[in-house]
Structures are given as C-alpha cells and as structure tokens.
Amino acid sequence: MSDLYLEAIEQARVYDVAIETPLELAPKLSSRLNNEVLFKREDLQPVFSFKLRGAYNKIAHLTEAERARGVICASAGNHAQGVALSSHKLGIKAIIVMPRTTPDIKVKAVSRMGGEVVLFGDSYSDASEHAYRLCEENGMVFIHPYDDPLVIAGQGTIAEEMMRQYPGDLDAVFIPIGGGGLAAGMAIYLKTHSPKTRIIGVEPVDSAAMYDSIKAGERVSLKQVGIFADGVAVKKVGKLTFDLVRQYVDEIMLVDTDEICAAIKDIYEENRSIVEPAGALGVAALKKYVRNTGARGQLLTAINSGANMNFDRMRHVAERTEMGEGREALFAVTIPEKPGSFLNFCQIIGDYNITEFNYRLSSRKEAHVFAGISVSDSAKIAALEHAMLSAGLATLNLQDNELAKLHIRHLVGGRCDLVENERLYRFEFPERPGALLEFLTRAAGRWNISLFHYRNHAAAYGRVLVGIEVPPHEHDAFENYLDELGYTYVNESDNPIYNLFL
Fold first, then answer.
1. Do residues 486 and 397 make contact, with C-beta atoms less than 8 angstroms apart?
2. Fold category of 414-501 in CATH
3. CATH number of this structure's domain 327-400
4. pTM over 0.85
5. In whole angstroms, what is the distance from residue 76 CA to residue 85 CA?
6. Which of 191, 305, 405, 450 is catalytic?
7. What is 2-42+151-322's CATH number, 1.20.1300.10, 3.30.470.20, 2.40.50.1020, 3.40.50.1100?
8. Which is the catalytic residue, given 51, 265, 288, 405?
9. Helix ranges, 117-148 (H)
10. Is 305 a catalytic residue?
11. Pairwise CA distance, residues 26 & 42, whole Å
12. Catalytic site residue 30?
C-alpha cells in the first residue's frame, strides 16, 4: 500500500494552485529551546492553509464526466476554500455546505473564490449530513476533507518538499491532526525517505479523536469536541487515515488551549504572522516535547498548517498566552480577616508583579483573594504555591481550572446571601444571531436564574455560566430538563472555586 501512496504523492497535481512553501529557521525559538527549530510555512498558501493541496489533487484527477456533474463538500473553513479555489481554477461547479455558525469572513472567502455556499445546521456534522443528501439528489462528486487517497497524497507533497529543502534527517516533525489526512500523507513519505525521523502527531486535549482511537485499537466517536482549534475539531477520524496514522506515526501528543495560545505568540514573534489555533499545534507540541525530553541540539520541525484566524478571537488568545507560557499564575487564597493579613500575603508574593487582585469580605473570620501573579517560568508558580501553603494559607492553584480562567476571574465578589439552593452550570450554544436570546427563552420558566455570565470569544460556540435556584427534591427533574434543552453543559456546583467566590 505504501508504494501506491508514494507514487501518488510523487505524481500529485498541486502546483497549478498551491505553492512550494518555505522551510524557515525560527532563530528566537531555536535559541530559547537550545535546538534548531524549523517552521514549514503552509500558512503562506493562497488560501492560507495546506488544505488546498489535497482538494486540488482530488478534483484535478476527476474524469470529464465527473467534472460535468460538479463537486460538493462540507466544511467550516479551510477545506471549503481549497475546494472552491480548485474548482474555480478547473471551471467546475462547486457547492460548499457550511454550518450556520461559520464566521462571516470564511463564508465570504468561499464565495469570492467561486463556490456556491449553502448554510445548514449548527455543526460540521449537520453540514456534512446535508452535503451527502445534496450529493445524492444532484448526482455530484463528494470531495472528502481527509479520508480519500488522492487528498492524502496531495497533503503528502509537503513532506516531499521538506526532503528537497533539507536533504538530511530531521530528528522530529510535529504534524497537526484533525481527520488525519495531513499526518497520514506526510508520515508515509517521511518514513520511507527519512526513516530516522520521529513523526509526532498533535491534537488538542479536548479534540483527541485520533489519540483515543489508537488507544482503543479502533475508531471511536467523541461525544463532545472542543471548538477552540476548530480546524482540527472532528468527532471521528477517517478509516484510511486511522490505519495509516497507526502504522506510520510514532506518537501523538496532546496540548491544551493555553499551550496553543502561547505557540501562536511564538510564531508571531518569529515572523509576524498570526496562525489559527490549529495551525499552532505543531509548535505547541514541539515546545512540550523539549520540556518533557530535555532534547538539546536536535533538528525539530513544526508544520504551521493554517492562518485563517478570526480577528476578534485574538483577544481570547492574548488573555491565555501568558498562562500557556507559564508566565502568569492564578491562585485562590484564603487569609485571616484581621489587620495586617493583606500585608503578610503581599510579603509572601514579594517582588513578583501582581496582574490581578480581587477580594470581597465574605465573613468576619476569613477573606478569599483571587490573585494573578506575573512569573518568569512555571517553576516559579510551584514555588509561590509552596510559600503560601507553608505560611498556613489555604491555597488553590487555578492553572488548570477552566471555570476560573473563563468566568470566575470576571465575577469575583458575586456572593449573595439571598440565594438559596443554587446550582451552577456551564453551557455552550451555537454562536449565531439570536442564539443568546434563544438560550434565555428556552432556559427560563420553572426555575429562577440567580447568576448569568456570558463572554463572546469570537468562536463558533458561545459560553455561558448560569446559576439556578433548584430545591433538592427537584434535582432529578432539573437534570432531565437540561438534557431536553439540547445544549452541551457541565455541572460546576461542586467546583471549589465556585464555593469560595460565588
């Protein structure tokens, strides 16, 4: 099978529309990590993503009869643009089905490239099902975003370019994984022509469909998919890609939102380009690999896979970057409510810069403080936590607490003695016009809302924190009601940070 893929990669038709992207040295990151770090700049493609390669290779190999039928695909962004531009180049009709939650910038980009956009559903799964229906009804050719041999071969041309650009053996290559087409195509070629290279796939911790599938020994379907790195947010990987990744990829690493945001900043500081979250996965994992293994003097390459970033989302990225770099600590600390307590607490912090400090009187015995502290590295966070605990202060390290980072830091001081039987939930709902009003309308009624916090993160889904007064004997009925609402939710009623501040 590998010989067939190698031949397909070497004969792939991609350069009618795609460019050979540079393999660039990242001098700042190289110096900081004590390794030679290279970026493969797929963010420089005409559609700002590698997806153009596979889409064009597939469409260019269609027969005349197939071209006459036209093509169709489902995508929330990068694949859509690749199909639209490829079809336009070849004079073929293209229908692109996109979720209604797709940012307007991506919808307009597809339209400009000649694709006929159909908006349907709130998720990629909804759009995909509708695209298959339209495909059957209209007799069109479906262009799969990853689970197709010609698409996989098109993505594999990136590895072929890298071998020409750097003939020696790379020590490790870090490749983002969504459905698996990019990793599969590149891994086949690299394992043949650079067998000593360690091939490492990368997924977000909350969208680890390939990682979970390989661990299980079969393809699994995720119940819930994280939406921050939307370019790799898939519930189930492909049949072909699963087999190829399992055979040729050495390891899959997982990275979190903070690590991704820090990597976006690293890439920006190297070349002043702003990649999308999925495009930064490789750099995030590369940094983590160096931390975990202590690698020195190695040649490490990250695939910067795409740069279709919503401008508004950069606000959220900036907020999380410092934590991803281990340069901001967040703590919830309980101190005695007596004169001199704040002074003693500040003396423990010492010369560190305080980035955030929230406090409200909660009783005459003790006070709860929410503090953000600027540090030089993650080791200092552990030292600070140890110092606070050694001083006899109850301390919670909030680095991994999503509720604290997303909501609580903006709501400290919200405790109300009038509230009874409050339960706290985090919700996600499709971010489209009228969605917030729809949520409120559907959630209102039998139970009183005692807290509500919402922040727009310029993503496909909005995030809401809700406190609701529910008597104990109605807990089961309330949980059934939430299930019927149909929104993704997390019960945060037992989260310790909720009990401290709200």
1. no
2. Biosynthetic Threonine Deaminase; domain 3 (3.40.1020)
3. 3.30.70.260
4. no
5. 15
6. 305
7. 3.40.50.1100
8. 51
9. 124-138
10. yes
11. 15
12. no
